[in-house]
Design goal:
Order of helices and strands: HHHHHEHHHHHHHHEHH
Structural class: mainly alpha
Strand order of the largest sheet: 1-2
Distance between the termini: 25 Å
Largest sheet: 2 strands, antiparallel
Number of helices: 15
Radius of gyration: 22 Å
Helix content: over 70%
Number of strands: 2
Oligomer: single chain
């Protein structure tokens, strides 16, 4: 474990990393969501009182306002979530990173958490998402004289790369969904729905649990409540997994239609959905996913579960006790 001066240095490095990611996230939110929302504020009363569901212009403006509000709210909540975890766990900075590399950690029993297929899918998702995000912003700022100096290649090249990467991402998500849906259906037909649900911990999403998780974490850190207990996936991980389907639907379907009919189809309504959802996705993954998965103090500087797919038993005892109890009941550990 980290001791003395080394811990202080690690805490400072952790705080700097969190601050950089939060700063970049809020720059994106400020320029691409907050400022447009302020510009649209005078129109909001009319949008609310004069609903015109047959007007593409109304839908364009209404969706722009809706997504900008959603982006700002997610950024605020995500910031509180990240800072709360930092405050609670700063005293244990580097805990799992160094434990897993210590003689004690290597001698611990390691429990499989992600299969090879799941890890490969995750890596493909990372690569395609990053490519889509970078090429998407490059396309958006292609006509800006300031940013044009940094694009190096033509906008058409970015468009081609963006489309190819987006299609790969969409195919991956659809294939993943149908594969696991088929497995779930097969188990449900043979052994019953309850057995099928228990076979897929990712289905254990509890909305109330997710909404309470920030409060529970803060109370635990203040010594006013016991440590929150989670199954194989905690509430943030569950929210993120199911959020991918929302993102692919809002990004992918309009994106595919724009490939076929152009960005101006339906008066630009599909474009504004695609564009604003992209900002939301980038903001969430930067602000919450990176900070919570890798820059969370107990995991800092990196959580390598997505590479090797395993967790030591001691970590399960603290972070995933409900899952560990189930594995023990089943005689797995």
């Amino acid at each position: 474990m980290v001791q003395g001066r080394a811990k202080l240095i690690l805490i400072i490095l952790n705080l700097v990393a969190v601050a950089i990611v939060l700063g970049v996230s809020w720059i994106i939110v400020y320029y691409l969501a907050w400022k447009p929302l302020l510009a649209m504020t005078p129109k909001i009363p009319e949008l609310v009182t004069n609903i015109r569901i047959t007007s593409t212009k109304w839908w364009y403006d209404a969706l722009a306002v809706f997504f900008d509000i959603l982006i700002v709210l997610v950024a605020i909540y995500g910031t509180l979530w990240v800072l709360a975890h930092f405050a609670v766990e700063a005293r244990d900075v580097g805990k799992w990173f160094f434990y897993e590399r210590s003689p004690e950690g290597r001698a611990d029993k390691w429990v499989p958490r992600l299969t090879l297929s799941q890890r490969l899918q995750h890596i493909v998702m990372i690569l395609t998402f990053v490519i889509c995000a970078l090429t998407g912003f490059a396309m958006h700022f292609a006509n800006d004289p300031y940013w044009r100096l940094y694009l190096y290649v033509s906008r058409d090249t970015y468009v081609t790369i963006h489309i190819i990467s987006g299609l790969i991402m969409g195919i991956l998500v659809v294939a993943h969904f149908f594969y696991y849906s088929t497995l779930f259906t097969g188990i449900a037909l043979r052994q019953g729905v309850s057995v099928a649900i228990n076979s897929f911990p990712i289905l254990r999403i509890y909305t109330i649990s997710f909404l309470r998780s920030l409060v529970d974490t803060v109370l635990w850190g203040l010594g006013l409540a016991r440590r929150p207990r989670f199954h194989k996936y905690d509430s943030e991980q569950l929210f993120e997994y199911w959020g991918v389907y929302w993102g692919i639907a809002i990004l992918g379907i309009p994106g595919l239609l724009m490939i076929l009919y152009g960005p101006s189809v339906l008066g630009g309504v599909l474009w504004i959905m695609h564009y604003k959802e992209a900002i939301l996705a980038v903001t969430f993954l930067l602000l919450v996913h990176i900070n919570y998965t890798h820059f969370r103090p107990t995991h800092f500087p990196i959580n390598l579960v997505f590479i090797h797919g395993k967790m030591p038993l001691r970590r399960l005892e603290e972070d995933h006790m409900l899952w560990l109890e189930e594995l023990r009941r089943r005689g797995v550990v």
